[in-house]
Design a protein that fits this description.
454 residues; Rossmann fold; 16 helices; 13 strands; globular; binds nicotinamide-adenine-dinucleotide; binds L-histidinol; binds zinc ion; Histidinol_DH_CS; zinc; oxidoreductase; Histidinol dehydrogenase
């Protein structure tokens, strides 16, 4: 089989070709059509529909799959795990927890906007959130850590995990072990669109939640979109994608190694080498087949499909400015900068889910152990969205209180504005004298005092 790696020349003087910015999820139409009846069946039939789709899509052989993972299954998973893997999980969990604890916002803040006008925000955990952990073209204990840890740090009351079952009805042992190490106990067996529908509507076994987070295949992305009026769909995280951005300073063999990282997730992923160096472009194309030859054949085939297809390959630009302009237009999920001065180039990047700097910070480290979240916006959503974080598991509620001496001036201005907008009820409420001072209204306690958060 010949490996014809996709190669494109790009001059900064020309407009960026739209097809180079596309991903698998750019056109969800076929997936939306496919998942709509799945969602409807789950809404109507609940658990029975989940069992039906587990048989159809996950090839589960049991007719009466138990949808909730038992304590005994989690115990058995812990027993089955290699202690060295558990050790690495603990290392990753500690780093991820540390990062997200530092990210946690204050419980409340307040300022005196003008003398006697106090206002602030309270941060409140979302009550119930489901973490979707994929299992189609791989298993993802790392996604348990990336989704559940910020939820625990935020203080979500009901945090559940939902993940596809294997054909024998089990859940990946690493996924269960990660949940045990983090402290999540409610785990359900369902995947794809049917899992998203179960979380949106609730079933006999699975509780409905306010929000779902976590990445997934285009079926998951499509279901989240169709259910977004019932369920907060969280950071839009679909098939993995990356750009490796280089100048002439990098070893092409190393750049090729890092280009393969995200391309091995599946044929629906996207991965580009964007470089201003012909030497690097040619060297990477030479090195890729050698790396593929050293890989497990299935994953090598996924990588080849991406890098020889429409959503990946090598892009040679005439200048570094053009390489950076393309990168910003593409807004990749993961960006690795392999240039002579990556920190300086970081300042030129405006749109990327995460940026990994320098040759000793490959995407793999970001995926697993550094601390920042690896559930990141895909499909150009990094233009307006951020990595999954503690903030995705909380909401803010604003509050204000006006002291008696500040009331007349505020009321006068509000009355005028209400009259302009022709709301007489609003205007009368503040033009009428308020003789009774509200008890204690001239004193505001410090933020947080007497403020329960749940
Ligand atoms: N953005 C991120 O942060 C991030 C992190 C990890 C993984 N990912 C991505 O998540 C994705 C996970 O996808 P996956 O496929 O491995 O797992 P998945 O769990 O998302 O998908 C598997 C499910 O898809 C459903 N499905 C499969 N074929 C179907 C069909 N023909 N019709 C309807 N439903 C069908 C099944 O219900 C199955 O349970 C990958 O693309 C990976 O790149 C992204
Ligand atoms: N690259 C994924 C996010 O796009 C995260 C991951 C987990 N495991 C391997 N990779
Ligand atoms: Zn990855």
């Amino acid at each position: 089989m010949t490996d014809r790696i996709s190669f494109h020349d790009f001059s900064g003087a020309a407009p960026i070709p739209a097809e180079l910015l596309r991903r698998t999820e750019s056109d969800l139409t076929p997936y939306l059509e496919r998942v709509a009846p799945i969602i409807e069946r789950v809404r109507q039939e609940g658990d029975d529909a989940l069992r039906h789709f587990a048989r159809q899509f996950d090839k589960v052989t049991q007719p009466d799959l138990a949808l909730k993972v038992t304590e005994a299954e989690i115990d058995a998973a812990m027993e089955a795990m290699d202690p060295e893997i558990l050790d690495s999980m603990r290392y990753a969990i500690a780093n991820i927890r540390r990062f997200h604890e530092a990210q946690k916002p204050e419980e409340s803040w307040m300022i005196e906007v003008r003398p006697g006008i106090w206002a602030g925000d309270r941060t409140i955990p979302i009550e119930s959130v489901a973490c979707y952990v994929p299992r189609g073209k791989g298993c993802f204990p790392s996604v348990v850590a990336m989704t559940a840890i910020p939820g625990m740090v935020a203080g979500v009351q009901r945090l559940v995990i939902i993940t596809p079952p294997a054909p024998d009805g089990s859940v990946d042992a690493g996924t269960l072990a990660a949940a045990r190490l983090i402290g999540v106990t409610d785990i359900y067996k369902s995947g794809g669109a049917q899992a998203v529908a179960a979380i949106a509507y609730g079933t006999q076994t699975i509780p409905a939640c306010d929000k779902i987070v976590g990445p997934g295949s285009p079926y998951v992305v499509a279901a989240k979109r169709l259910l977004s009026d019932r369920l907060d769909p969280g950071v839009p995280a679909g098939p993995s994608e990356s750009i490796i951005l280089t100048d002439d300073s990098v070893d092409p063999v190393l750049a090729a190694l890092d280009l393969i990282i995200e391309s091995e997730h599946g044929p629906d992923s996207s991965a580009w080498l964007v470089t201003s160096s012909r030497r690097v472009a040619e060297g990477v194309m030479e090195a890729l087949p050698l790396h593929w030859a050293a890989m497990e054949p299935g994953r090598a085939a996924f990588s080849r499909a991406v890098l020889c297809g429409a959503h990946g390959g090598v892009l040679l630009t005439d200048t570094m400015e053009a390489a950076i302009a393309f990168t910003n237009a593409y807004a990749p999920e993961h960006l690795e900068i392999l240039t002579a001065d990556p920190m300086a180039d970081l300042g030129r990047i405006r749109h990327a889910g995460e940026v990994l700097l320098g040759s000793s910070t490959p995407v793999t480290l970001g995926n697993y152990v550094l601390g920042p979240n690896a559930v990141l916006p895909t499909n150009r959503a990094a233009r307006t969205h951020s990595p999954l974080s503690v903030h995705d598991f909380t909401k803010r509620m604003s509050f204000a209180r006006v002291a008696q001496n500040a009331y007349p001036e505020a009321a006068r201005h509000a009355e005028r504005l209400a009259q302009y907008e022709q709301f007489p009820g609003h205007a009368r409420a503040v033009s009428t004298a308020r003789p009774q001072p509200t008890p204690g209204s001239d004193h505001m306690p410090l933020p947080g005092a007497n403020m329960p958060t749940s």
